[in-house]
Amino acid sequence: MKKYFYIFPIIFILAPVFVLAGGGGNFGSGNVAVPPPPGTINDITANDVVIMIKTFSNWLGGIVLIGATLTMIIAAAIYLTAGGNEKKTQVAKKMIVYTIVAVIVVSLAYGIVSLITSLITGLRGR
Question: How much is the pLDDT for 116?
């Protein structure tokens, strides 16, 4: 039973990754990417790369924050049901601390990505 408390947060964090990898959200829209004819080159600009990086960081940040919320709920449940068991309360406290650290790291990463993309493109607030 104890090992399931650690498996469920990992599943909730990784499940959206596998769902999004399946089709990019164009389910039933009829938008099918057609490959270019042989011998042509797709022009990818620096702005396209910046948009891809920002989109990836937004998705990853959202997924991590959803996982952090679920992990915080699980840690709170463990703490509330510990019933005076020191080991369970220590596990719950560690989960809460690690979740807070993860949220801080994701927030810093999002800020760094925004800073670097604004420096590269020279566009502020996009």
Answer: 81
